[in-house]
Amino acid sequence: MRVTISDDFDLLKIADSGQCFRFNACGEGYTVMAGDKYLFIKQVGENEYDLSCGEEEYENFWKEYFDLGLNYSELRGRIDPEEDPYLFAAAEYGKGIRILKQDPWEMLISFIISQRKNIPAIKASIEKLCAKVGREAGRTPEGEVLYAFPTAAEIAALSMEDLTACSLGYRDKYVMKAAQDVASGYVNLDSWKNLDDAGLMERLLELFGVGVKVANCEILFGYHRLDAFPRDVWINRVLEQEYADGFRFEKYKPYNGIMQQYLFFYSRTTM
Q1: What is the dihedral of CA 118, 102, 56, 255, to 10 degrees?
Q2: What percent of the chain has pLDDT over 90?
Q3: In this predicted model, what pLDDT tens digit does every residue of 104-114 receive, in sequence order?
């Protein structure tokens, strides 16, 4: 089907923004895997996109996944170029990024795996894990098989040797424990949606192998709490070099997470 998206929407920038690991360039478009759902999307005009799904699936899933109900260009309009020239430049550079509405379980495992890994290595490990379980969810236009993201029960049923083969390194025990806790019902990620931000952070930090950075990424990308502000080496560098007097969190509340994405995407190129 073909859709018109007039607000900020740039497939390349979304794919390279560091928030998703199964959103990849493929031929003239992009393959997107979300849980067990597959999409091929390509731009065919200034604001026109062809999607491989039907209208019902688009309306019930992908429209929400791309957060198309929120006006990102309007949010960028909050940034005063004279008051905050660095963020203004970052937002102009990153215009088109959107915070995807991703699954808490998939994001928890993805960001546990992400610790001390670069993005290509994270993607490779996740694809190995998906292939290890082997539940086919779609095929690229070139015929490559893409696998669904494993459920907690499917990962918990694997051996540690299976996880080691996915190049997880020391993270294998974190992934296994998270899978066992979710599969057993000891951890109920869906029920945590009812917690406030502080309560959600507290519960996430109780998980084996989850620190503040991973927890913040989970809150922003897994629970779509748009005020979360994950800090990594790039963001810490930006805050130190450009915001010695402090970042204006109150001004951009409750959308600091979107501003963080602009800063992260921009700083990796300019610093």
Answers
A1: -110
A2: 98
A3: 999 999 999 99
Q: Where are the alpha helices (DSSP H) in the chain?
A: 11-15, 55-57, 63-65, 72-76, 85-93, 104-113, 119-133, 152-156, 160-164, 172-184, 197-205, 212-217, 233-242, 249-252, 256-270
Length of the chain: 271
Contacts of 42 (CB under 8 A, 6+ apart): 11, 27, 28, 29, 30, 49, 50
Cα(241)–Cα(55) distance, integer angstroms:
47
SS (H, E, C) 68-109: CCCCHHHHHCCCCCCCCHHHHHHHHHCCCCCCCCCCHHHHHH
Beta partners for residue 43, in sequence order: 49
- What tokens appear for 157 in the block? 């049923």
CA angle 217, 220, 221 (to 5 degrees): 75
pTM for the full predicted model = 0.95
Strands 48-51 and 145-147: unpaired
C-alpha 14/C-alpha 33 separation (Å) is 14
Structure-block tokens of residue 102: 């991703």
Q: Which residues 6+ apart lie within 8 Å of 26 measured at CB?
A: 40, 140, 141, 142
CATH topology of domain 104-222: Endonuclease III; domain 1 (1.10.340)
Domain parsing of the chain, residue ranges: 2-79, 104-222
Was domain 2-79 assigned CATH 3.40.1410.10?
A: no
